[in-house]
Amino acid sequence: MAGIFRFSFGPWNIHEGADPFGPTVRPTLSFETKLGQYKALGFDGVQFHDDDAVPNLNALSPQQIIAAATTLKARLDDEGLTAEFVAPRLWEDPRTIDGGYTANAPAARAYALERSQRSIDIARALGTDLLVLWLAREGTYVREAKDSKVAVDRLVEALNVMLDYDPQIRIAIEPKPNEPMDHTYIPTTGHAIALGHLTIDPSRVGVNIESAHAILAGLDPSDEMGFALAHDKLWTVHLNDQNGLKFDQDKTFGSVDLRRAFNQVRLLDAYHYGSRGEWVGLDIKAMRSQPAELATKHLANSRHIFLRLLEISRSLDDAHIAALVGSRDYEELERYILDGLLCTPRVPTA
To answer: What is the band of 258 on the pLDDT scale with cuts at 50, 70, 90?
Structure first.
C-alpha cells in the first residue's frame, strides 16, 4: 500500500443548490472567494471547466484567452494551488443542443473542435497537460437520429484533432451512461479505453472515472478503476456517491455505501495511485437543504472519509486476508472487512 494522495475539486462543487426539480437556494459566491477556500478545506488542486478559468471565452480571441489564463496561473501560484485539468464545457451552448463532436450539423461540430482547442490553450497556460472530456450530449434521445458507427468515427476524428493540436496534451475521457442524454455513446470505462485505441496516439488517451457514473451504469466503481489500472489508463478520478439509479446525485463520498467507498480507496492505495502525480478529485454537491454558511462541509467531509478509510485499510492484516482468500473462507473475510469498517478489527489468533 503506497498511494500518494493529493485532493482537488472544481469551483462548481461550491454551488447554489439547484437540482433537477428546484431552483437555487443559496447565494452565488465569486470565483475569487471560492479559490480562497481551497487550502482551508485541505485541498491543493483545482479542476477547471474552460469557462471557469476564462469566463465568456467565446467572445475572446485565442490570444486574449491565453492572456487571461496566464493571469489566473499567477493567482493560483499565489494561493499555492495547482490546476489539475481543464474540461471544455460544450453542453451548455445552444450550438451543442444536438451534441458537439457527434452533432449532425457540421457547424456545430466545427464549434466543438474550436472550443476544445481553446481549452487546450487554457490548460497549457495553467500548467497542466490534462484535458478531461465529459461527452455530455454525445448521444441520442431517438436512436434513429444518429448513426452510432458514424458517431464513433466523429469522436475519433475529434480526439485526433486535439491530439494533433498539442503533442503534449493528454485526454481523459469521463464516461457516463446517461443524463443529460437518454443514452450516451461512450457509457463505460471499457468504451472510453477502446475509443482511445482508435486514435492517432492511444498512449495519450485515458480515463477519468466518476464513482456515480459507474453506479449509474450498474457497475462497481472499484472494478472500473481496476480495469483502467490494468490498462495504465486511470489518470484521474471523481469520487462521490450515488443512491440508486436516478439522476446524478454527486453525494458525499462514502455517504451511501461505505464499503463501496472503502474498496475504491483500497484499490487506489494498492496500486500506488498518485505516485505519478495523479490527483484524488472530488465531484460532489452539498445537500440542497444545507445553509449557505455550512455549504462546504461536503468537501472537507469527503476528504476526511477518504483518509479515514485509507487508515482503516492500511490497518488490516494483509497476510490474514491472503490466508482467508487462500482457504476460500470468504464468509470470514467478509466479517473481517466489516469489523474493520466498524473500527473493531479482530486480531487473528495463532
So the answer is: very high
Work out whether strand 234-239 and strand 139-140 pair parallel, antiparallel, or are unpaired.
Answer: unpaired
Establish if 340 belongs to a structural domain. no
pLDDT on residue 350: 43
What's the predicted TM-score (pTM) here? 0.95
pLDDT, one tens digit per residue, over 272-326 is: 999 999 999 999 999 999 999 999 999 999 999 999 999 999 999 999 999 999 9
Per the annotation, the verdict on 49 as an active-site residue is yes
Report whether 54 contacts 15 (CB < 8 A): no
Single out the catalytic residue among 50, 51, 52, 250. Answer: 52
Cell of 111: 464549434
Q: Of the listed 15, 49, 238, 298, which one is catalytic?
A: 49
Q: What domain range includes position 227?
A: 7-292
For residues 52 and 16, the answer to whether their CB atoms sit within 8 Å is no
Report the distance separating Cα 7 and Cα 232, nearest Å: 20
Domain count, the chain: 1
Q: Is 318 a catalytic residue?
A: no
